[in-house]
Design goal:
Rossmann fold; binds nicotinamide-adenine-dinucleotide; 6-stranded parallel β-sheet; about 375 residues; alpha/beta
Length: about 375
């Protein structure tokens, strides 16, 4: 790898712009060497905006991956193109940062995982919300044992934006503008739950770190964006092997008070947080202890960590199995919502979720007595 690292950004749309600012926050350690987009005018504009025109402009995945001077591929493409991009980048020996979702099917997840194993390529899922300081502090508190055994986790990822319309988002050259790729289910791979809900899902799994999700029940709704082909909102309940229960609330139809993003209710106390605060309270305390934080630049923090991973072997906060597990939980929620029943998750994160035949028995499971049904 060169120093500074030479980065090629694939896709020059909305999120690429944010990533470019992130790379440029580390000028001594990285250089944006290329932008690539089928809409080359977009790539050209980005090159001017972020590198004063010095970054090369390409029009395809193959072209940028084939550039021997590039060390890192940053994938900011529509969902259906992630698999091809990760596999080609790994085979070309590049380090890879890939936007969520990893891909649109668990079958593709297997192909990606196999390729990463064969090539040994450095890979990190772009799970930017894992870098929120309040969440990191919450995870530290959970691990410290101060609130005791977790019983319940809640992860919330919501926004209502009348100006963001997933139906029309996407460039004209990629079939976007009117009815962009997000409106095409074979390209987007799902609705709100697979898209914005990916953040809520990996956040939930990160709080329950090490606890395996075993059962999923999903409810999908279209509350507001009536023109979407599928959901604008997901409610997902996850049972973990320990018996703890998780809940994901994710939506393009509404927002929540004070931007709350997570909660944990546990044996001795509870905590709750957002991008800017973390409150925790043991049950006898008269009030919660509160920490406040400035709004974090999560993409810049994520990119900074990725650089540390590539250059100094820092631990990987979003390895391939974690990002596939995230996809598996979401696929399970879709299946659950379709069949109206709880779904079981195989131990292998690439395993296909199946309709539950028997309830998973946890240390906290209860038999429901007949009397309560009368
Ligand atoms: N982490 C976050 O909060 C966040 C936010 C928004 C988007 N995203 C993710 O980022 C990715 C891109 O989303 P976006 O909102 O930037 O989309 P976008 O439509 O704004 O940009 C995608 C770009 O890819 C280009 N493209 C399409 N096909 C291509 C090809 N074959 N080769 C090269 N370029 C091609 C399009 O022309 C477009 O410019 C998605 O995976 C999305 O889920 C993440």
């Amino acid at each position: 790898m060169s120093s500074p690292l030479r980065v090629g950004i694939l896709g020059a749309g909305g999120i690429a712009n944010v990533h470019a600012r992130g790379w440029n926050a580390y000028p001594e350690r990285t250089t944006i060497a290329a932008f690539s987009d089928v809409a080359t005018d977009r790539a050209q504009t980005m090159s001017h905006l972020h590198t004063a025109g010095s970054a090369k402009v390409y029009d395809s995945i193959d072209a940028v991956v084939g550039d021997a001077e590039i060390d890192v591929i940053d994938i900011c493409l529509p969902h259906h193109l992630h698999t091809d991009a990760v596999i080609k980048a790994a085979k070309a020996g590049k380090a890879i940062l890939c936007e969520k979702p990893l891909c649109t099917t668990l079958g593709d997840g297997i192909l990606i995982r196999d390729t990463l194993n064969e090539t040994g390529a450095v890979f990190m899922g772009a799970h930017n919300n894992l870098f929120t300081p309040a969440l990191l502090e919450a995870r530290r508190l959970i691990e410290s044992g101060i609130i005791g055994t977790p019983f319940m986790y809640r992860s919330i990822e919501t926004f209502q934006s009348r100006s963001f319309d997933p139906w029309t988002s996407g460039s004209a050259a990629a079939g976007g503008g009117q009815k962009g790729w997000r409106a095409n289910l074979t390209q987007a791979g799902g609705g709100e739950l697979l898209d914005t809900g990916y953040h809520g899902t990996y956040r939930l799994l990160s709080m329950a770190a090490g606890d395996r999700p075993v059962e999923v029940t999903g409810f999908l709704s279209r509350f507001l964006l009536s023109h979407l082909p599928t959901e604008d909102t997901g409610h997902v309940i996850v049972r973990f092997e320990s018996g703890a229960v998780g809940q994901i609330i994710t939506s393009w139809a509404f927002d929540v008070v004070e931007g709350r993003q997570f909660e944990v209710e546990a044996e001795f106390g509870a905590l709750a947080g957002s991008q800017t605060y973390l409150k925790h309270q043991l049950y006898k305390w008269p009030q919660a202890a509160e920490m406040t934080f400035p709004v974090p630049a999560t993409f810049t923090l994520e990119i900074g960590h990725f650089i540390e991973m590539v250059q100094n072997g820092a631990p990987n906060p979003a390895p391939i199995d974690d990002t596939i597990r995230t996809l598996q939980v979401i696929k399970a929620a879709y299946l659950s919502a379709q069949i109206g029943a709880t779904v079981s998750l195989p131990e292998d994160p690439t395993g296909t979720p199946v309709a539950r035949t028997a309830a998973f028995n946890t240390p906290f499971s209860v038999e429901v007595p007949d009397e309560v049904l009368l």
